[in-house]
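Re: that chain you flagged

S.,

Sorry for the slow reply, it's been a week of failed gels. I finally had a moment to sit down with the sequence you sent. For the record, here it is as I used it:
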Amino acid sequence: MLSLIFSGCSKNKTKNLNIGIYGVENSFVCEGLKKSLEELCSQENLKATFFEYDLESPLKEQIGKTKIDLLLSSAGYAASEALKASEYDIPAEFTSNMTTSIRQSALGKDNKLYALPLLNDFFKMEINTGLLKKSDELQINDWDAFLSVSKNLAKEKNNPITFAGKNSREVLDFYGALCEALNGIDSYNEAVMLMNENATLPMEGLASLLCDSSNSPLATAVAYLKNWNKHNLINKNSFSEFTTNDINTLAERNLNGLVFQNLSSFRQCNQMKSFDQFFLPSRSKRAERHFTANIIYALKFSKNSKVNTILENLVSGGSQSNLSRNTGLAPVLANAKTPDIQASDARFYVAATSYPLAGLGHESGLNAAQLKELADIIKGKIIY
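Prediction finished late last night. Pasting the structure tokens below so you have them in one place:
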């Protein structure tokens, strides 16, 4: 479905800039992107027209005959489709001030840059600060420490672990992040390959390939989740009932102790300062890690001379700070100001590791119904 939003960016309205937004499903982030682009348009005496594209229909079909100048896209399947549709490269020097891991995430073809990273949406775990201080462990350096903290949290809160399982894409991102932490990047990539090469299989068959064999890429993640569930550490509603709003309502009412979710989702919680954030631990060295942190890209879709000006501005220090403040996500520049410690830490975590991952749910071209069915089947393997 395509929705159209007009926004006047200058009094003179001398020129137009058509901007598409593709696969950005978090409304808070989407509105923050629009606000940031409106401010840049104003500086260039432009009128912006925003077009929103979802992940249910092919991008080219949604764009149709509309002439867009710039496209903002989430990472994974959306970015790969956007890359296929884009015909205009971007000056490579626009990435020069980015951290190394983010530069590695820039997308191109024919040895030219086509997709410019703007922000990252880091997937993490958050632990109630007050409850953590009562624990014997103040840092989560390995999964034994995680289990110890979780059991201590359970003394204060029943079933303290929560995540937004009703959002099938996000819960699959969680399973993918857990897969990378436990088994490394090769297992994550195998899971992505299986999902993309077996999309026409019944979801029961795909879930079996992902989970059932001892060599299946999600087998270890499922085993860990089964163990946490067996010890009554996971709130049962997490697997398919809780939305992001539910998770954040629980946090605001001090009813959960540990949350798995991305930075954009937790931005909607009024009690962010009551939680400490951690990356998922691993036996792998930091330089070998690939954290799940979905990137927002900008792609050029016309010869409009103003597009390069906007793109260059988007990766300048001032605009990066503005983007981070308006969306709550982490900037891609090392020297850009962030609105708080959460965004700053997310930038640092990604900068200190190898290139980030889009998230297992975002990597796949499965439609919403397929994602839900797949997530439900994996849930069954965990709780039964």
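What I noticed first: Confidence is low (pLDDT under 50) at residues 6-13.

Talk soon,
D.
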